[in-house]
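@channel sequence for tomorrow's demo:
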Amino acid sequence: MVSTTTEWRSEPSPAWPSVAVPDVVITGDRYHSRDFLAAECRGMWSKVWLLLGRSDQMPEPGDYQVEEVGHESIIMSRQGDGTVRSFYNVCQHRGSRLTFAAEGSAAQFVCPYHGWRYDNDGTLVHVQDVEDFSGNPCDDLRLVELQTEEFAGFVWVTMNDEAGTLRDYLGPLYDEWSAYQVDTWPRVTALTANVACNWKVIQDNFCESYHLPSVHPQLMDTHEESYRHTDFQMSEQGHNRMVMLGAMPSMTQYGDDPPLPQGLQDRLTAWNLAPDDFVDRPFEVRAALQQQMRKLGPDRGHTHYENLRDLQLTDAHHYNLFPNCSLTFNADGLLMQRMRPHATDPERCVFDHWYYAFTPAADQGGVADRATNIRLDGVHAEHQVFEYGDRPMGLIPDQDISITQGQQLGMRSRGFSKAVLAGQESRVAWFHHVIDEYIAGRRPANLNPATPNSAIQGS
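structure tokens (generated this afternoon):
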């Protein structure tokens, strides 16, 4: 019987700096209190870097996207010099939203209320009846700009004028993410659901694997879900990482004599390996796939494999990007799930379920992942927005969200006092600790202490 994780590692994962996870009290009011929601907006959402738009969906000057984060609406617009600049979506006259479109192309943004016009660099260029003002507003006003960077094919913004660089904020996640070269991968799944739970309920779920055997039992055919064989690490910046053994049956579920599941048989076939050779030795599939992917990958167009460690070819690398993104990388795909708070209701949120898939060159036949035989044309999937429950999202997200909505129902109960966490749920504790640090004013380091947590409890 295998007893340690390291026996299965062909090479170690790069170590993240050791972080001590302090005790944190996670009570129900964090998920339903309007005061806590307001404190998060003041102390946390306004201080962090946020992943918002997608760079290749704004290829030309004038192209723009609009994203909502709580009560804020943010315009990201491609400039003539190729950069992206971001602005609060609000007219400087009397506070009207400038645009209600999610995306488009415009050289100027025109306020629908009184017709004030702004160039896409934020400059106010026209005011109706300008002679009726004591001075020309164009001389003094412009759209309020946010610090913006592009990385990994995405547009990132921060509302914090004194924020450091995005690279510093991402910490050890920056280099690991860069290796996959996802900036050229199309989004082949684009689903957004309005969900009846607090945004943190969903992120909590993605911060632990304790729920996998009961909520996602199908994963045990191809992943070792036990915390005994899984790496969990936290970063000082607030992010966390889980590396889960993949391309092998669950040792916890099947012991020393597992079957060779159909999913692994299909994957062996896709990489020109004979499943019959592994019927009696399924635990050897993982190493064999790593070697074969190294051998055949470049000729199939997977040139990014040269940047990946052996573990990244077969093992699920899962990251919680603080505060509101869950990233699961495999060798040729990125599952990205993002949670955003509702503007006024702490018991609702917006949940994005996106999948980005590697697409090889045209001479490779347009097959994004030969293990699943998905055929792509390199074009982003249509973005669908709906109320959760109106349509399926897929097996795994539906399993997750059905659980999180049920959990939200218990958060107001007198029968629930606080969460009781296992050691493998330490990432949940770290996530809430970092939220508390922001609300208390201890993050970022250049901020002054603010309202203590005790002052924001209650509803």
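heads up for whoever presents: Confidence is low (pLDDT under 50) at residues 1-6, 361-376, 446-459.
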